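hey so u asked for the seq, here:
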Amino acid sequence: MNRTLVLVRHGESEWNAKNLFTGWKNPDLTPKGVEEARHAGRQLRERDILFSIGFTSALLRAQRTLDLMLKELGQSNVWTVKDRALNERHYGDLSGLNKDEAREKWGEEQVRLWRRSYDIPPPGGESLKDTVARVLPFYCQHILPPVLRGERVLVAAHGNSLRALAMVLDKLTPDEVPGLELATGVPLIYTLNADSTVASKELLK
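ran it, structure tokens below
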């Protein structure tokens, strides 16, 4: 029984490079982001980690990251599931704004609260707590079952949707999870016990 779950934040997007709040907006990967995704795939191939199923969001940058990794693994035909439940946190009125401009408009402290608090949403958007509320049911219903059957599962998603998964896997508190930083294109490999708790965890660099 492998019970392997690999989480990967999408490669650098065009809006990451421009320091913009992205959320549910749909920019593509930069050339650097493409290479990050390919590199992640090569790292997994070097570990001889092949997958039964892949999951990603409804957003292009995560979908392309998954596709590029699977291509590097020689697994382009693996069944993949795309669902908005795995989308990035919705940033509402902040979407498309430069982060420095947002600080000038609303102030450093207010923007920090919107970005790093657990339960304070930006205007018209989601808090991290809201994101957790949509990600975790999807995880329990769709991602966890094949892992517990002994399959290897690959998830390419976003900083905040993956924070939601790490909150459960790593047993993080609402105070701890907003501070979790996930680099783009870096695989995080979990091996689970039969009761869904974490047996081991490895971050590839």
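The mean pLDDT is 96. Residues 99 and 144 are 35 Å apart (CA to CA).
lmk if thats what u needed
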